Structure formats: structure tokens, C-alpha cells
């Protein structure tokens, strides 16, 4: 392309067609293909790929496509990619395409007419654009070569794509160098411009810079969480994120990054640079104690606080101290269901509980994998459950209807209804007892006391403004789970003061 960039597009296309035809026929081409294109063509011929084949491929199912979108951090930088490419692509009658590391199209945006044309060559969401699926193309060849690539007209191996031009660049995770996917600009060959590749490469670098900045903020949050814990730890220790980057250290010189095994769990583990270490989970990372030989004590208590509609948290008390993490709505639903089922839930059961569809196990496993990153040592799997040695408490809102109010998960809907029925039944039983105004007064007094305590305070039973309990009938607490509701505390208070008893008036 460097030789032809100054030539007119029609002449360039003719030359490229001659090069393509001669190379595939085993003849000497008038101009040798560019090295990156020649290497790709040789790979295609070794694979036996038919240049006359269709570019159609089996699309991902919608749920699998959504799962891949949620699983990649590329979604976090789509704003940067759009801002840098969509307007330019639209003006030049091209489209922006973003794929995952396997070449599956996750997003495509741009000119509506070009989007329709792209559909005719199966350049659509969920399609496969790796080399072994579609031959030489900017997306697949950038994946294979690991660097930015522009492919124009007959440089494509498959004849169907000879009327197209495309430029693509890899996007890598700055935390570990892992390839995340490809950002690409594609369109009719008549829209070719030699500067397109430089633009795509620059926008890919901007996306990586944004990911790097996000990572630095995550490390800073981990440092804030770990600092009070490290102050209480005797000897050497350091806090690292899940990729091994050091957030803080005590008693030792910090290293920039600690090599971690791919599947790290709480307990004793041998690390190449530190030897035998004790590892404990932190939100967003790990507490590593070099030279520790004692076994890791399990977390003693987990508190799932659902008392506030917009801020759901999980707090974990461990041997080195405690920490609190804010939960996403989905993670709050999953942990709520597990707290309600101490015996555990399979992926299919959780899929029913949260989505009402037992087939959505892929999504459940992906979400549970994320949860276990910060609750390793607390959660077990096969089935998913809290550890037997862990005391689990759920802090409910004061009113059953306020339990995860934005959730439509079947398990949450059932728990709201069941808890509401239980409260109504208890209220009716009290009225029917004929206990009179003294009972009502005692209940009101207990409720007022709970109200005055405020959201952040705790009663003797551990309940604050909400109620600390299991999720109700059908989702009740099991062994090792504390269940104390506000209404139960009120009844107990009335009973202790004897206001509802005839003997009390004697």
C-alpha cells in the first residue's frame, strides 16, 4: 500500500487484483504483496481456505453476545472509541467495528447505508472475523499479527471482500498486556484513505490510556482499604490487586508487580519472588504475607446490608481486620439468594432465582466468578454457597417492599411477597388477641426506638434501621445464620414488659 498510496484508486485496485490472482495461481506477481499481506495469504493457503467462499458465519446467540460484552473491559472505553472514530467514519461512509480477542464482532456503529452493506458480507454483531473464518482482513490479520493492519481491496484473500477497505488496531489491557480485542474502521473500497490506519491506531492508544487511568484509580482504592489492615499486621505484608500490582506494603521494600498464579485462592501458596506466603482476600485484591507458616483463618462474619435502596454493601471480618465493598445490583441479588440457601445453589438454580431461566448458566458462572474474586475464602462452589464456618447476616430494609426495590429477580419478588404476608399475618394475630391498647403502645414504643436509632446504629440484636435476618418463608436462614427482624423485636419487647398480659394489670 505504501507504493500505491499516491496512485489513483482505480489503478491501485487493478494492480492489487493482478497481485492477488498471480499469487494464488503460483505465478510471479507484478508487484510483491506487502509482507504482512503475503504472510497472511500463505497462512490461508496452508489452511486450504477457498478464496471464492462466502464470508457468512454462524452468529452468536443474543445471550452469548451480551455475555461477551459484559465480560470485556472494552465496554468501559466505548465512549472513547466512539468519540474518536464514529463521526469520522460516518462522514467518510465507513463504520466502526469492535471485536473481542477471538474476532467476534461485539459492536458496530456508523453510516446506516454502510451498515446495511456490511450486513451483506456478514460484518454484523456476533459474526466471526478471525482469519480462519473470513480469510485475510484487517480484523483477523491484526489479531494474527498482533499489530495495526490496513487491508485494501484485493489484499483481502476472499473475493467477496475485494470491494472493501478496512484498517484495524489491537487494544491491549495495560494491566497485563493481554489482547482485549480489535477496533476497526471498514467501508467500501472507494472510501480508502492512507491516513485511516494512523487514526485507528491513535484511538486504540487513547482507549488503552483510559484503561490505564482506571486501573490506577482502582489501585488507589485498594490502597485506602488495605492501609488500616496493614497497620495491624505484624511483620512483612503487601496488598496487591488481582493482577499483582502492588498497592501498599509494610515491613518490606515494595515491588511494582508481584507474579501471581492464574487461579489464586486464599491459603498458603508459593510465590516465585517471595517463597511461601499466606494469602487472604481483599476487595479488589489480596493481602500477601511472606514467610507466614500458619494456616489462614477463615473470615468469621459476613454482613450483607440491603437496608438502603441505592447502596448495597457486603462487609467481611477476617483475621487481619475487616473491609466493606459496595455491590452491583446483580451481585447483591446473587449474594442474597446464597444467604437464603446455606446448603448452596447450582448454576442452574441461581439462573432460575435471578433470571427465571435455568438455561442462563453461562451468565451466572461469569457473575459468580467476579464475586469470588473479592470473596475468595468466603464463598465455595459446587454448589455455590457461603463457607460452613462463616456467620452470615442479612440486614433488610424496614419495609419488605424496599428489599432490592429495582430487582425483578424471581427470588427477590417471592421474598418480598412472603415477608409481606408474614408481617401481615403477625399483625393480624396481635390484633385478634384482644391485648388492647397496652400492646399497641408497646409495639409503637419499640418501633419508635428503632426509628430513633437511625440507619447507622445497631440495636442489641444487631439490627439497625433495617432488619438483620434471613429472607423470609421459603428463603429462611439456616444453621449459622442470624435472623432478627424489627417486627419480631417489637413483639419481644412488648412481651418482656408484660403490657399485653392480664397479669400485668393486677
UniProtKB/TrEMBL annotation:
<dbReference type="InterPro" id="IPR029016">
    <property type="entry name" value="GAF-like_dom_sf"/>
</dbReference>
<dbReference type="Pfam" id="PF01590">
    <property type="entry name" value="GAF"/>
</dbReference>
<feature type="compositionally biased region" description="Gly residues">
    <location>
        <begin position="463"/>
        <end position="479"/>
    </location>
</feature>
<protein>
    <submittedName>
        <fullName>Transcriptional regulator</fullName>
    </submittedName>
</protein>
<feature type="region of interest" description="Disordered">
    <location>
        <begin position="417"/>
        <end position="506"/>
    </location>
</feature>
<feature type="compositionally biased region" description="Low complexity">
    <location>
        <begin position="480"/>
        <end position="506"/>
    </location>
</feature>
<feature type="domain" description="GAF">
    <location>
        <begin position="98"/>
        <end position="211"/>
    </location>
</feature>
<dbReference type="InterPro" id="IPR003018">
    <property type="entry name" value="GAF"/>
</dbReference>
<feature type="compositionally biased region" description="Low complexity">
    <location>
        <begin position="417"/>
        <end position="462"/>
    </location>
</feature>
Amino acid at each position: 500500500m505504501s507504493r500505491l498510496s499516491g496512485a489513483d484508486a482505480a489503478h491501485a485496485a487493478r494492480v492489487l487484483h493482478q497481485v492477488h490472482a498471480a499469487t494464488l495461481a503460483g505465478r510471479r506477481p507484478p508487484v510483491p504483496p506487502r509482507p504482512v499481506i503475503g504472510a497472511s495469504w500463505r497462512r490461508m493457503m496452508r489452511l486450504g481456505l477457498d478464496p471464492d467462499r462466502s464470508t457468512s458465519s454462524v452468529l452468536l446467540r443474543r445471550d452469548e453476545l451480551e455475555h461477551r460484552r459484559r465480560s470485556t473491559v472494552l465496554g468501559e472505553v466505548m465512549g472513547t472509541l466512539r468519540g474518536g472514530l464514529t463521526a469520522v467514519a460516518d462522514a467518510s461512509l465507513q463504520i466502526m467495528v469492535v471485536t473481542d480477542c477471538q474476532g467476534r464482532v461485539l459492536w458496530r456503529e456508523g453510516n446506516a447505508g454502510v451498515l446495511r452493506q456490511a450486513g451483506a458480507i456478514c460484518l454484523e454483531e456476533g459474526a466471526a472475523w478471525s482469519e480462519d473464518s473470513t480469510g485475510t482482513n484487517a480484523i483477523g490479520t491484526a489479531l494474527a499479527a498482533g499489530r495495526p493492519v490496513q487491508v485494501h481491496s484485493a489484499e483481502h484473500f476472499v473475493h467477496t471482500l475485494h470491494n472493501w477497505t478496512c484498517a484495524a488496531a489491537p487494544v491491549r489491557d495495560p494491566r497485563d498486556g493481554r489482547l482485549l480485542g480489535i477496533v476497526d474502521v471498514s467501508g467500501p473500497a472507494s472510501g480508502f484513505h492512507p491516513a485511516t490506519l494512523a487514526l485507528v491506531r491513535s484511538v486504540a492508544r487513547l482507549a488503552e490510556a483510559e484503561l490505564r487511568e482506571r486501573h490506577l484509580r482502582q489501585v488507589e482504592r485498594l490502597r485506602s482499604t488495605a492501609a488500616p489492615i496493614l497497620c495491624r499486621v505484624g511483620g512483612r505484608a503487601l496488598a496487591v490487586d488481582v493482577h499483582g500490582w502492588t498497592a501498599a506494603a509494610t515491613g518490606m521494600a515494595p515491588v511494582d508487580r508481584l507474579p501471581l498464579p492464574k487461579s489464586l485462592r486464599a491459603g498458603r501458596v508459593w510465590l516465585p519472588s517471595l517463597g511461601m506466603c499466606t494469602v487472604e482476600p481483599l476487595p479488589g485484591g489480596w493481602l500477601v504475607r511472606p514467610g507466614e507458616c500458619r494456616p489462614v483463618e477463615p473470615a468469621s462474619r459476613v454482613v450483607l446490608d440491603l437496608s438502603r435502596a441505592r447502596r448495597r454493601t457486603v462487609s467481611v471480618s477476617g483475621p487481619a481486620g475487616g473491609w466493606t465493598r459496595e455491590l452491583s445490583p446483580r451481585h447483591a441479588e446473587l449474594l442474597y439468594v446464597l444467604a437464603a440457601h446455606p446448603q448452596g445453589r447450582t448454576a442452574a438454580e441461581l439462573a432460575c432465582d435471578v433470571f427465571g431461566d435455568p438455561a442462563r448458566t453461562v451468565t451466572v458462572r461469569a457473575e459468580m466468578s467476579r464475586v469470588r474474586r473479592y470473596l475468595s475464602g468466603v464463598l465455595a462452589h459446587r454448589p455455590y454457597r457461603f463457607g460452613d464456618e462463616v456467620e452470615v447476616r442479612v440486614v433488610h430494609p424496614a419495609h419488605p417492599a424496599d428489599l432490592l426495590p429495582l430487582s425483578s429477580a424471581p427470588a427477590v419478588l417471592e421474598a418480598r411477597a412472603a415477608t409481606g404476608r408474614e408481617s401481615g399475618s403477625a399483625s393480624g394475630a396481635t390484633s385478634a388477641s384482644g391485648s388492647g391498647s397496652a400492646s399497641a403502645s408497646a409495639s409503637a414504643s419499640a418501633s419508635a426506638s428503632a426509628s430513633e436509632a437511625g440507619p447507622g446504629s445497631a440495636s442489641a440484636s444487631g439490627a439497625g434501621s433495617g432488619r438483620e435476618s434471613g429472607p423470609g418463608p421459603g428463603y429462611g436462614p439456616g444453621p449459622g445464620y442470624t435472623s432478627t427482624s424489627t417486627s419480631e423485636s417489637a413483639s419481644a419487647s412488648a412481651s418482656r414488659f408484660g403490657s399485653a398480659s392480664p397479669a400485668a394489670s393486677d
